[in-house]
Amino acid sequence: MTNYEDIGNLLGDEDEEAPAGGAGGAGRPLPLICDPRRLPHRLVILAFMCFLGFGSYFCYDNPAALQIEVIQDLDLNTARFMQLYAWYSWPNVVLCFFGGFLIDRVFGIRLGTVIFSLFVCVGQVIFAAGALVNLFWLCEIGRFVFGIGGESLAVAQNTYAVSWFKGKELNLVFGLQLSMARLGSTVNMNIMGWVYGKMTDLVGSPGHTALGASLMIAAATCLFSLFCALVLAYFDRRAEKILNKEESKTGEVIKLTDVKDFPLTLWLIFIVCVGYYVAIFPFIGLGQVFFIEKFNFSPTQARAVNSIVYIISAPASPVLGFVVDKTGRNVTWVMVAVVVTLAGHMMLAFTFWNPWIAMSLLGVSYSLLACALWPMVAFVVPEHQLGTAYGFMQSIQNLGLALISLASGAILDSKGYLLLEVFFCTCVCIALMAVVMLYFVDYLRAHFSPCHQTD
Q1: How confident is the model over 318-345, as a mean pLDDT?
Q2: Tens digit of pLDDT for each residue in 202-214?
């Protein structure tokens, strides 16, 4: 999503000496740990970059980790429960187009990151407060505010990465950031039930008070991410002074008029994106009760198996990204990922096999698709349209997630989990048809465009 070549890099050559003077005093080089040109200092920065999004990803799936508790304590049906995910997605239908613009032209990367982190913190606190006082409409407002910051914070995180790292380093850096994000989701899935239990013991009984207190404790991770944003702002400002560099920008250029020029292959990529992800995230949001009801799992076991997609994604994403980079054939890898995902959902729907098998398949295929699908956008549109293409892709992805989240809750309330799984299989089949069409459209064009060369 970011135009790497257009962004001023804070590094310079690795072997260059730090400027004399500056923070180190006249004529004295800076210590390695304090020199923004040097690897030890950049590793410190990388640690803060990775934790920048930890709180957002930890709290995003708080409802999934506490599905039973949220539904019981706030007296909800599944359709209303899934509105918590829909409200997160609604603001990002629009903000995906403007997050980069706000960072580039309005706030700047440092202030923008702090502001988006504040939105995440405030949104989570409002969500927790709504649970504390048993006002579901306040919980919805909290998730909406949380959503305003969540996706834009990811844009800011990527901008920092491009500013501080370069070339082949970026692949590893983005992989580490994604792994840390999935680690946040995994920790949430496996610890929030325990936190709720402790809060129940503290207040004397389960209920909305214990739920609100648990969610308020989760907000501490958002505060930690806000602290990381402030630290990054300080070090980025310091590096700007030492190296006489301009403040980093995303490099995105959003022109809605470019949409009319999008090729058929890009629209097929959009369909794959929506059809695939709406069968992953809403399922995880509703997965805990599914594993309890169908496989007689305990709540702890259900949370564990529901988190396996994120557990696998954390280490697998950098590895599979390396494999895709080395082999090319992005379309083929996407097709493999979609087929494996369809197999996983069909196993969950129509068999009683150990769900760890199906969920492990979903974890691997989810990681593979993320590594192969998103880079394809750069293969089918010119560079000046990349910002618009990625913004539109994220926008319709969030629109699809919002609508399918609402539909999933309604289907589960009225028809049950079997029909819901059939619905998810249908969504994956749509993605499969789109990727097959993408393969043949690319083949029949009979010229070696960048997309053609990947397959």
Answers
A1: 90
A2: 998 899 999 999 9
- Calculated CA dihedral for residues 281, 68, 205, 200, nearest 10 degrees: -30
417-444 vs 386-415: helix crossing angle, rounded to 10: 150
Model confidence at 8, pLDDT cuts 50, 70, 90, reads very low
Give which of 130, 166, 135, 156 is closest to 56, Cα–Cα: 156
What's the pLDDT at 377? 84
Contact call for residues 330 and 370 (beta carbons, < 8 A): no
Nearest partner of 116 among 98, 132, 130, 90, judged by Cα: 98
| Region of poorest pLDDT, from 44-48, 325-329, 354-358 | 325-329
DSSP 358-386: HHHHHHHHHHHHHHHHGGGHHHHS-GGGH
Range among 94-108, 115-129, 304-318 rated most confident: 115-129
Look at residue 339 and tell me whether its pLDDT is greater than 80. yes
The SS3 call for residue 339 is: helix
Q: CA-to-CA distance for 26 and 20, rounded, in angstroms?
A: 6
Q: How confident is the model at residue 142 (pLDDT cuts 50, 70, 90)?
A: very high
Q: Decide if 306 contacts 291 (C-beta within 8 A).
A: yes
Would you tell me the crossing angle of helices 417-444 and 330-350 to the nearest 10 degrees? 160
Give the C-alpha separation, 449 to 423, whole Å. Answer: 35
Query: Which of helix, strand or coil describes residue 20?
Result: coil
Distance CA 304, CA 292 (A): 12
Q: How far apart are CA 215 and CA 196, in angstroms?
A: 9
What are the angstrom distances between the C-alpha of 39 and each of 42, 52, 53, 159, 361?
A: 5, 20, 22, 19, 37
Residue 323: which pLDDT band, with cuts at 50, 70 and 90?
A: confident
Cα(205)–Cα(171) distance, integer angstroms = 48
pLDDT computed for residue 284 by the predictor = 95
- Which residues have a Cβ under 8 Å from the Cβ of 372 and sit 6 or more positions away? 324, 330, 331, 333, 334, 337
Distance of alpha carbon 283 from alpha carbon 274, whole angstroms: 14
Using CA atoms, how far apart are residues 2 and 4, in angstroms rounded to an integer?
6
Q: How many CB atoms sit inside 10 A of residue 371's CB?
A: 25
Whether 362 contacts 341, CB under 8 Å: yes
- At 187, list the tokens: 């920790």
| Cα(238)–Cα(36) distance, integer angstroms | 9
**Contact call for residues 409 and 83 (beta carbons, < 8 A):** yes
